[in-house]
Here is the input.
Amino acid sequence: MTLSEEKNGKVFVLGLSGKLDIEGGKMLVERMTQILDGGERYILLDFTDIAYINSSGLRALLLVAKQLASSGGMLILAGVSEPNWNILKISGLDSIFTLRPTKAEALGSFPQ
Amino acid sequence: MTEQTTLILKNDVLELESVISFVSDVCVRNSIPPETERDLTLALDEMITNVATHAYPVSGEHRFTLQITVSSEEFVARIEDDGVEFNPTEHPIPDLDAPLEERKVGGLGIHLVRQIMTSVAYQRVAGKNVVTLRKKLT
Here is the structure.
């Protein structure tokens, strides 16, 4: 997996590309820990280029959500493909995450 | 026509790459659609990662087998290991309705496999775990 980053107003956008698996999951949790330690609170994870998620990836997403909840932040996932959405749904994560179809819609969902 | 292949794998998650590329070839040869290939890849990823990381707590190299049988009706994967006894069909179902703060971060792999495959069966035979995953193709 590779990560790309940009700041859009108050929102920190982390773009994920490739496989969210054991390695991708570790990379996500490590980078998110640094980002939250740096004081960011509004996080958008862009899933548009994620081709594959397994349970290690789901574990990482849950860890990130817990980290963010305990620091009082807000997390939105954007661009989750239908197959990936199905994996989130059968794992019961659809009730935990806020999803938006596109990055633009996700950006518009954070408080101004 | 039925196609059957047996792969001998080491207890190393790096083996996954060869399994995934093998499954991809099998799916192309048998005209299995991409959405089914995705499910098969995920199920094998979860099961093989489980064996490679949990079945052999004693360090060192161990071998286990993955036998794949494909007919026009069904994809069958039989995983046989002589590691720690583990019955995935008795693995507790995670609480999928718990709020975030009470949600356990692990334990979703076996749940996913049981959801995406048509059936998961387990036998303990002569000191070995034998797990059979089936996916209907028609």
